[in-house]
Amino acid sequence: MDRRSFLVGGVAGAATLALAGCSGSLPKVVAKPAVFGKGATGTVQVWCRSATQAGLTSAVAGFNRANPELQVQLTPVPDAQYVTKLATAIRGGTPPDVVDIDDINSQLFIFRDAFADLTEVVQDLDYVDAISPGHLRLLEYRGRYYGLPYLADNSQLFVNTELFERAGLDVQESTKDLSTLLDAAKAIRKTGDDVYGWSISGNAAGIIGFVTQPHVWATGVDMMSGEVGSQRADIVGNEALERMLEFYRQLWRDGVLSKATYSDAGTTWGADFRAGKVGIFPTSYGATVPAATKAMRAKMQTVLIPSWDGKRSFFDGGDNMCIPNGAANPSGGWAFMQYANGLRQQQALPDGGYFPTRSDAATPEYRKRFPLASGPLDDIEKGYAPRTLAYNLLNNQPSSPYFAMFREAVFGSGSAAAMKTAQSDYQRILDQVQA
Amino acid sequence: MSTISTRRPAGRTGVGRPTVGRGPGGGPARPRNSLTHPPRTGAVLVAPAILFVAVFVLVPLVFALYISFTNWPLIGSYRFIGLQNYLTLFQDPTFVHAILYTLLYTAIVTLPILALGYFLAVLVRARRRGSTVLRTVFFLPYVVGLTTLSFMLVLEAQPNSGAVNLVLRWLGITDGSTAWLVNGPLATVLICVLVVWAVSGLTMVLLMSAMQGVPDEVYESAQLEGASWWQTERLITIPMIRSTIALSVIISVIGSLLAFNQFYILTQGGPGTETTTIVNAIYNRGFVNLQLGAATAQSIALVVVIAAVTVVQFWALREKD
Fold it and tell me: Interface pTM (ipTM) of the complex?
């Protein structure tokens, strides 16, 4: 072999090895109720989002104390890098045993066969009927379940009852649909120069998607239709969406929203509401309650988010736990997942700003301890989040079409043109992702 | 012509042939081996460097080229799709918009960076008291870096609270509530000002070094001839530092075509895709859309375009005889 052949062969061989290493599929995890999760020993590697690290840290500590033969090591991963890092680990053949993943991203991996089919062990759980159906739906593909919900991050309307009383309003009556909400917000605005009827971070894509879409979903329609992998945009002609956009446009035009709304990127999300200066605030429990004073908490009340026609919904955000195919200790991973979903661990989640994903967690003791944390649990079937491969692209990015549509409709030229543009942008992104 | 033999290790054959002799056509052949070292010494010495380049540059480049011919997703299996990623490059309106926006951005900032850099170089080129301090002050933004400056500007551009708005209100130009980063044109203006301020320090250093290389006698002659300052700059300084000016412009243009950090931090390409640069678009395609195949094809196209632009610039700004 001469030198040239050696060099060419070396480069080709290295490339072949690299390609082979990158293209192999990992061995599938087999999960049978009789043995899976039982008698596991060793170490379980768990990845979690940085945002949910605090709650899981205490769960891991409790599990490790109770299971000296099976120890969990928790690795927090920054939210923005989670998908990339997990995909890289899977492609590299070294995935963790359990991933605590943003539920909206679950389908990205499930659709591509990267997570273990846990249908049988999930259906074998004695509390399976109490599990949040919205979260389970994000784990389902072709009738099979690929994980277990862990925590919920739900959007609701938080109201300041003191301002409602001052404006002579009844909370339930005033929040039953978009029309009554608009009237209530206007009435509250009149109670003081520095008091606003409504608050939203108008320049934060994630927040806008989180708190405004349930107004649409409550009617039973989404902004896209069809099965994952072949979804179509459903924007133009979407009455519930148009009414929601017009509602927000009216809030802006009537001065019910503060001027800062236009550029508010969410860095001080909820500060105005916690200061008692806002009547109605669509948000999450974690962004509102933990940082509020005891006096302010006493003034708060929550209702689910209504549609124009009086139905209600909320965003089923949060985390799901999944076991990647190729995990080294999947049985140990399932043992930990069951522990994290135990009633005691679930009932402690509001301490970290999140909700349980089990409706049976809302016991009298729980309600007494967390009076503002049971609304979604009482109507758990009303929770929803879209099952798609493109949620981040469609909603969470600053360049997302939903965000652009919202801003154009509310602060710009109105909903008609904004929805028309969003229709084509939604479809283009769906076509790209599903190609 | 004499023939020189190299030293040959004892007992070895087939090496150490005459290095200078007749070529195939009867002309002189090139010397092939060192006169003082065994012929493989050079190869051994450069082998680590060649290995590093091969492993960390050539193999990844070949691999990237391969990926660009596939539908390589970040998650899951892939398949070979030939030239499809390249053929559909310009069917992606976001990418097309990003190209146009990046060209606009490059056109806006290139000349001011050069002009300001030149002006600063003129200020500090003389070896007089205070020049060193001024050089440091002018170069400091470049040392701090665009990333850090961008994070600072995120805060300073906030309506009603950021320094930018407070200063403008104090000057009576605005009411201080301008939302710079949620308006495409305003964000572009702000980022361009930031970049010109931050990057012109490098241009200053490059040009100053070149200016200091111009012989004093030339300026003295011009002075004796009664040349004005502007004539001196136009007819002496600029022609004599032409190659350095060319280098500065090329560095500036390449930097602008590859702009990413400041846009990612300040606007994330928004509002909408108004301030999305080419690299932003590639990043989004790869790590948000999770389509590495298409993103790699876009990257390779960008490399080719930058190479072409650079060649054109070299040609346009070459030294003229």
Answer: 0.77
